[in-house]
Write a structure and sequence with these properties.
single chain, alpha/beta, 274 residues, globular
Length: 274
């Protein structure tokens, strides 16, 4: 099975952000991701990681004005300067935290923006970002986010659209972030889609579907899908990115259905990531 990480933006929200690292460690996780660390000095986030022996797996580039409805800047014409500024800030954080990969959200251009113009903007921005990421020893990811429920109007909402952009950019440091929940919402045949996308998959995330709650609350066959990824040769992380029903600690029973707990699924016998 892929090693399992916890998304600290969605999990353990009963606690302040910097206290969630210890909670994740106590639950047996060895890897963590989060959406945006920028409200905290990098030294404080780094200390929370180190104090709990946690590996940083992924976080997002700044996504613009979230409260105003922005969900990423990479595909927004006219926001190129803000995207590039955010990229450099994210790269500085990634270097300080020792995080190997960053996610660039494509964004919601809006009905007034020509879709082809948005796509060209996305390709140009990601090309620049992938070059900068490679120069600083990082990998950049592009994630399809469903436009049916969670983010109506999101520019890249299917794996096929993401792969089209990744291939157009043509930089090896730009890879696919595959969320099983978002793909299921968009109606993907997950077995076939994972096999097709595997050469480009850098990172995997999951939540049950429908509902986006913990595994076992919906119909997503998580154990079978993770086994499928393993059989296909995937060797990256799989991050739990769901909204718990109730306290997070009470939502972790699904780990037993994967053939172990988060600790045994996060490290091999040598203490290395799988």
């Amino acid at each position: 099975m892929p090693p399992i990480a916890a998304n600290l933006t969605l999990l353990f929200t009963e606690l302040p952000f910097l206290e969630r690292f210890a909670a994740a460690r106590a639950a047996g996780f060895r890897g963590v991701e989060f959406l945006f660390p920028y409200a905290w000095p990098p030294a404080e986030v780094k200390a929370a990681l180190d104090d709990n022996g946690l590996v940083p797996v992924l976080f997002n580039l700044p996504a613009g004005d979230w409260d105003a409805g922005e969900r990423g800047l990479a595909g927004l014409p006219g926001r190129e300067a803000a995207f590039r500024d955010g990229l450099e800030r994210a790269l500085d954080y990634a270097e300080a935290l020792g995080c190997p990969r960053l996610h660039a959200m494509a964004g919601i251009p809006g009905a007034a923006v020509d879709p082809e113009r948005a796509r060209v903007t996305l390709i140009d921005n990601l090309g620049h970002a992938a070059e900068r990421a490679a120069a600083r020893g990082r990998v950049l990811t592009l994630e399809p986010i469903n436009s049916r429920l969670d983010m109506p109007g999101y520019l890249i909402d299917t794996p096929a659209r993401a792969l089209s952009v990744i291939q157009a950019v043509g930089e090896p440091s730009l890879r696919l972030q595959y969320d099983l929940y978002h793909a299921r919402v968009m109606g993907e045949d997950l077995d076939a889609s994972l096999a097709q996308c595997l050469p480009w998959i850098e990172h995997v995330q999951f939540a049950d579907c429908p509902g986006r709650h913990q595994p076992g609350t919906g119909s997503l066959p998580l154990a079978a899908l993770l086994a499928r990824l393993d059989a296909l040769g995937y060797r990256g992380w799989a991050s739990a990115e769901y909204h718990p029903r109730g306290p997070t600690a009470d939502s972790l029973a699904w780990l037993a259905n994967l053939g172990g707990d988060s600790e045994s699924l996060s490290v091999n016998g040598k203490g290395e990531t799988h």
